[in-house]
Amino acid sequence: MSDKGEPRTFDPNFKGPVVNRSCTDVLCFIIFILFIIGYIILGLIAWVNGDPRRVAYPTDSQGHFCGQKGTPNENKSILFYFNLFSCTSPSVMVNLQCPTTQICVSKCPEKFLTYLETQLLYKKDKNSWTYYSQFCKTPIPKSDRTLSQILMDDNCPAAIFPSKPFLQRCFPDFSTKNGTLTVGNKTMFEDGKGKTRNAGELRAAANHINKILDAKSLGMKLFEDYATTWYWILMGLIIAMLLSWIFLILLRFTAGFLFWVFMSGVIGVIGYGIWHCYKEYNNLRGQENSHLTIYDIGIQTDISMYLQLRQTWLAFMIILCILEALVILMLIFLRNRIRISIALLKEGSKAIRYVPTTLIYPVLTFIFLSICICYWAVIAVYLATSGVPIYKIIAPAGQCEHENKTCDPEIFNTTEISKACPGAQCIFAFYGGKSVYHQNIPTLQTFNLFVFLWLINFVFALGQCTLAGAFASYYWALEKPEDIPPYPLFTAFGRAIRYHTGSLAFGSLILALIQMFRIVLEYLDKRLKVSGTRECKTCWLSGPGEVGTISRAAAPESQNNISKFLQCCLKCCFWCLEKAVKFLNRNAYVMIAIYGKNFCRSAKDAFNLLIRNVLKVAVMDKVTDFVLILGKILVTGCIGVLAFLLFTERLPILIEGPSLNYYWVPLLTVVIGSYLIAHGFFSVYAMCIDTLFICFCEDLERNDGSTEKPYFITPTLHGILNKKQLVPQKQKE
After folding, report:
1. What is the spatial distance between Cα 452 and Cα 523, in angstroms, rounded to a whole number?
2. Does residue 531 come out as left (phi exceeding 0), alpha (psi in the -120 to 50 range) or beta?
3. Which of the four, 258, 300, 432, 646, has the lowest number of CB atoms within 10 Å?
């Protein structure tokens, strides 16, 4: 008994959640407050140094924003590329930058024109040069420079093509004429450097940039779909909320029916599997090679070969028979515990009916989570946009030894690098700096993520402790609902905030540390994969006389396999650890809500109580999981089917659906939103069941059902227990 802790004894003064309590885990409370203060200071520092406009506006090669008010580019909101053909370079996808000069313009070119053509037409028609010069970096009075001078100074493009603005960038105006791709109704044109190009080459160059911008294009279409269907989405979410509420109320009458129907289905499915295996086993009798064993044919990649053996179907049939027997035996020998679990599910539905304000609490949790997520996202953006423009060398061929080194665009053309790497550009890359703040931005982003995880887990912990306090007040009321204290939810919330912030922070800190370590493992895994890919590319790029490079790269393959195995083991262990800690924390918060002890003491008491009732815990957990999963599937499925019929315009008789770019956008939003709403409602129900179960186990240890020690449980539950006769209670069922 000592290994499982001492059971609770009868206490005549115990009437539910302890009123007179003191602050717990004060040290952790102080640390938590200091971290929050540091988080606020980090937000202020990021706000002072960051500039989110750097994400919203396109940036030219000098790091200036296009279209930003109060700047020389205020009326130039579109980004123009000097030489789109250079965007076919491999460095485009590596550096996410096209190695050509980019300037801000007020409008895109509308016709074909080369610099050489403007020189020839200058004396006859100066308007062509006036039109052309607006696409130069600096105004040039007349076209008296040679093409080589213009290209060397990088002041004007060699040619312009008919273009249209797309995502605030000038892209060629492609069209199809008689099945042929054209640009400005031309299939062939001059590139301004003496070469004749076709529309396909220009399309290939533009596609490299489009790969970077596709996400923004998709985002615009998604925004259009959301703008068209937002009221339908809102209506679907409201219906999901009503369905979730109705399901919880009806669980009082349908919990047992749903469970036994499900178990009958499981038995039936397994029985059908046994029959099918026997049928296949019997049909293979006498067929060629069907008498062979799995050992005879060995390991085969074609799975169908195993299905042609009688031994395979015999093995399947034996396994399913064992599984069927286990399920039936479990239902027979655990029937009383299953009945207790079903009775507790019904009791949970009744508890929510008596304390209906608990169904509103998920809204408060949603508000807290939204604040945490928004604050984290804003700080992340401000940190990412902190600093001064950093310029890097990008070469069209991607083979310059100085590539990706920092440079100064003002003097780059006068340095030896521009001569050593012909065609190289000094282009804006990102924002950064050499100060202590800028050098530690990755550390600050890590701190931002860690505190975010801590706060998120704290919000969940606060909700669990609050709901546990409210439902514990319901359970320990001898006469329900007369003895239920007024405003149990608000009282429990006040107690949790006033006395147990430190304990909740302690439990959420443990979870945050585990989750942070899992994120680090995932990050290292991604880095190792990228590193391995680079090594592989290096091997394949080696010349025929460099076979030794490949062998050296292949040498540590066994070490890589070992490291991957260890990583998988660590991921699995920390995933299991996170699940175990969440389960323990959840029950510890119930103990905190009832007795007001510190986190460690409450976790220990909860663990010992569950160990003393381990079979009841296992059955209760699985039965509850089944009912909640079924409820979520039912609510989400109903709303999902209705949304699918509406957004695919398959209900023309009843209602006309909206015309959309992607019908799956609002459909997924409704389905995911419905699931989250159902999860929010059912999480209240799950916390109710967990709390009632803890109180139920405590009640059995404290009391014996006599007049002096009456049970607080309902007569229905007591009758299932087969204990002493319960003292009659006046209850409103």
Report:
1. 18
2. alpha
3. 300
**Per-residue model confidence as pLDDT tens digits over 397-444:** 556 777 777 787 777 777 777 777 776 777 766 666 677 777 788 889
**Pairing between strand 159-160 and 196-198?**
unpaired
Q: For residues 638 and 243, is the Cβ–Cβ distance under 8 A? A: yes
Is the CA virtual torsion 22, 24, 27, 32 positive or negative? negative
How far is Cα 712 from Cα 709, in angstroms, rounded to an integer? 9
How many whole angstroms from its chain centre is CA 122?
Answer: 59
Q: What is the DSSP letter of 412?
A: G
User: Can you tell me whether residue 90 is helix, strand or coil?
Assistant: coil
pTM reported for the whole predicted model: 0.69
pLDDT score at 91: 43
* Residue of 71 and 557 predicted with greater confidence: 71
Q: Are 98 and 118 in contact (CB under 8 A)?
A: no
The pLDDT of residue 539 is 43
Task: Determine the Cα–Cα distance for residues 8 and 309; give it in Å rounded to an integer.
Answer: 59
pLDDT band at 466 (very low <50, low <70, confident <90, very high): very high
Half-sphere exposure of 156 (CA within 13 A, CB side): 31
Per residue in 662-682, is it b (16+ CB within 10 Å) or e — as a string? Answer: ebebbbebbbebbbbbbbbbb
Length of the chain: 733
pLDDT of 705 over the 50 cut: yes
For 480-500, letters b (16+ CB in 10 Å) and e give beeebbeebbebbbebbeebb
Neighbouring-strand partners of residue 79: 104, 169
Q: How far apart are the first and last CA of the chain?
A: 38
Assign 242 to helix, strand or coil.
helix
Using one digit for the tens of pLDDT, what is the confidence trace for 222-241?
666 677 777 888 888 888 88
Q: Distance (Å, rounded) from C-alpha 87 to C-alpha 100?
A: 8
CA distance 597 to 499: 10
Where does the pLDDT of residue 12 fall: very low under 50, low under 70, confident under 90, or very high at 90 and above?
A: low
Cα 167 from Cα 732, distance rounded (Å): 65
Closest alpha carbon to 243 in 670, 538, 551: 670
pLDDT value, residue 420: 75
Contacts 24+ apart (CB under 8 A), 190-196: 190/112, 190/114, 190/159, 191/85, 191/114, 191/158, 191/159, 192/114, 192/115, 192/116, 192/147, 192/157, 192/158, 192/159, 193/147, 193/151, 193/158, 193/159
What type of residue sits at position 292?
L
Place of tokens 């924003």: 65
Secondary structure of 460-507 as H, E, C letters: HHHHHHHHHHHHHHHHCCCCCCCCCCCCHHHHHHHHHHHHCHHHHHHH
By mean pLDDT, which of 222-226, 320-324, 513-517 is the weakest? Answer: 222-226
**pLDDT over 70, % of the chain:** 76
Residue 222's H or E segment, with its range, is: helix 199-283
Q: Enumerate the H helices of 57-179 as residue ranges.
A: 91-95, 115-121, 126-133, 147-153
Report yes or no: 594 and 695 within 8 Å, Cβ to Cβ. Answer: yes
Spatial distance between the Cα atoms of 217 and 229, rounded to a whole number of angstroms? 19
